[in-house]
Amino acid sequence: MSIFGTVRVKNGQYKIKGEFHHITPNMPIRNEEDGWKLMGVTNPRSMTYIHSYGGEAPFFESISQGKILGTRCDDPDCEFKGTSYIPFRIHCPDCLTRNTIVDFTDVCKNTAKVHTFMVCERSGAFNTLDKPIKFINVEFDGISTILMSYLSIGEPKIGMKVVPIFRTVNPSYTITDLSWVKEDVAEEDLPEGFTYG
Amino acid sequence: MIKFSDRQLKTPKLMRPVYLVTAGQSKFDRAMPDKRTEELCVDALTMAARLIDKSPAELKSYIHSCYYGHFADHFGDQLLGEAVIHDRLGLDPLGNIGVKTGGATGGSTLWEAVKAVASGYSDCTLAMGWERMDEVPTDEGNHLISCAADKDWETPLGHIYTGYYAVMAQKYWQVFGKEEESFRRTLAEIAVKHHGYARFNPYAQAPMDITVDDVLNSPVVAYPLRVLDCCLMSVGAACAIICDEDTAMKLTKNTKNKPLRIWVAAGSHTLRPACRRNMEIPLLPNESADQYADLGERFPGGDRYPGFTGFLGARMCAYYGYRMAGVVDPMEDLDVIELHDAFTISDVQSYEDVGLRPYGYGRDYVESGDCYHTNPHTGEPGKLPSNLSGGLIGCMHAVGATGIMQTLEIASHIWGRWGEIHGDPKIWEEFGREKPADWTDLQVKDAKRALAISHAGVGSHVTSTILMDPDHLLKEDA
User: Fold this and answer.
1) Which of A46, B6, B15, B171 is found 20 to 30 A from A145 (Cα to Cα)?
2) Chain B from 34 to 53: CB within 8 A of any A CB
3) Which residues are CB-contacts of B356 (< 8 A; sequence separation ≥ 6)?
4) Among residues of chain A, what percentage have pLDDT more than 70?
5) Where is average pLDDT lowest: B63-77, B98-112, B414-428?
6) For chain A, which domains are there?
């Protein structure tokens, strides 16, 4: 019986266990309008990548714990010292000094507004979000950038106040663990696995 | 706030004049089960040779280095496909390099080929681009394209690139479109125009005789964008031959192709549109700071530049390109253009980024009729016709080839060969496509100067390719 590939880090190296690819037979592609002549072949692929979050790992850990971390340039010599970033930027894009990690959860809870949005009726393969997906781009007071995310409850509108929710139960440790709802939604009405943190 | 230094804003300079000599392309289609990619590239190179009355072997004997545009290895499931194509074209052991900048790959490939000639490294270069998007079904294709977004912060959100443009469409509609239904209809008119022009192009994949209401009633992909607002997924190849003056003259002697001066400039901006920090609008030669001083009052929200309403990368490639080539006002100085209409909304955004209209007024380029071959309001020639090929919406978006296809299209007008290249009944027959009874020659009369914009991501990379008849330059030392 196959098991999902799992990975841990020990002594600075990946230690892998389980199956990271599955072999499926090639199948011929034939032309039904021309005597079923051979035109090509299918090449099935099923494989698991091993991906490092590197310096962004604290953010992806934090959303599973109900927090939103951003970063801020504190380099006294930087022309743009004090600029704050969500999404998380490991380095200041101006001076390239490593930014300070800052807990912006309260800023997000109190000032988040929809900058723009769209409702997506279709998705690409491997999508895990329910359709239609309500994409929202969220702006925050005092933060120089805008965060792309999705609205789980409410009808999006530009300028609408929104509140973050977190997949704290069985998190996926991806950006989909962070979502948003309109104001005043009871915690028991949140999607399965999500809390206000 | 983003700031640029004067050194960063220096006008680029080519070290010697560079010429586009000829170009070619394959048929474009959603799938081509009967051809390997190398066959499409051979088709393109053979056409380029034919346009200057050479055999492929003769043309190849001039090529000194090769630049290959191929965006997505995972679409074709072939890493280093450039080496395969280079070998199959019989161009070993010449130096070659692969270029990939998303949707701008074709334009970026030309950028490299032009610089190689300008520097003196080569006297003749091949810029060849292709894409093979039929090796996966559409859903998987959408996923693969979305992998060109930030894989940790954006791709997991729907795995569909259209969504990343749709948020821009929504914001643009609110800010500059003032949420008017008429603006939505203007967007749809662009799709009608491009599918319509594709009817006269035998290479085009999606010719359609449709109406604005057909576009508005087509299925929603990512509201407000509908299926007919979106570009195609394609298979195909295109190439261009770039030379110094002496080689250009030799190759085109006694042929119908006049060598055309070529300049390519590039700009970029973050792959994540949400990461765009505010900045002042970099001004094109036909703009002044005063005209944008009250932009936020005229269009509330429009003062956050580039925000979700503009493409800084597109603005910067025009900023550099216009100054290189001496373009002051594109509406006056250019005769025909091809824009990167990945979506109807990005077409409108580009009108403003490249200075066809000031920020906030892009829709007027369509509504005035200026963008048409024949202005529907006056019956006279359009002031600056765009995307007569059908563009990415009507003709193709075989990503690595797109910017080169656009360049062939605008060149064909300056060569005065648009009707010949697109009207030859043999080509329609060879491609198994029916030439419409009302086929119309879209040749832009007396075209001398032209522009093609090649654009990637949500504006992550953008190039401007400017062509001019060498007897109609805008500045002597360009």
Assistant:
1) B6
2) 34
3) B330, B331, B337, B362, B365, B370, B384
4) 99
5) B63-77
6) 55-195 (2.40.50.140)
SS3 B6: coil
Ranges assigned E (strand) in B71-201: 95-99, 124-132
Q: Which amino acid is at B45?
A: L
Which letter does DSSP use for residue A169 in this model?
S
Indicate the helix (H) or strand (E) that contains A146.
Answer: none
ipTM of the complex, rounded to two decimals = 0.90
The domains found in chain B, sorted by start residue, are 19-136+233-252 (3.40.47.10), 264-468 (3.40.47.10)
What residue type is assigned to position B66 of the chain? C
Q: Which of B157, B173, B228, B305 should be substituted to probe chain A, the one whose Cβ sees the most A Cβ atoms within 10 Å?
A: B157
State how far residue B440 is from chain A, nearest Cα, in angstroms. Answer: 33
Q: Residue B42 in 3-state DSSP? A: helix
Taking CB atoms and an 8 Å limit, are A128 and B156 in contact across chains? yes
User: What integer pLDDT is reported at residue B365 of this predicted model?
Assistant: 98
- Please give, rounded to a whole number of angstroms, the shortest distance from the CA of B458 to a CA of chain A: 13
B277–A145: do the CB atoms touch at under 8 Å?
Answer: yes
Distance from the A15 Cα atom to the nearest Cα atom in chain B, whole angstroms: 22
Closest CB to B154: pick one of A121, A133, A148.
A148
Residues B95, B100, B105, B107: is their CA dihedral positive or negative? negative
SS (H, E, C) B124-157: EEEEEEEEECCCCCHHHHHHHHHCCCCCCCCCCC
pTM of the predicted model as reported, rounded to 2 decimal places: 0.95
Q: What angle do CA B321, B324, B325 make, to 5 degrees?
A: 90
Cis peptide upstream of residue B285 (ω within 30 degrees of 0): no
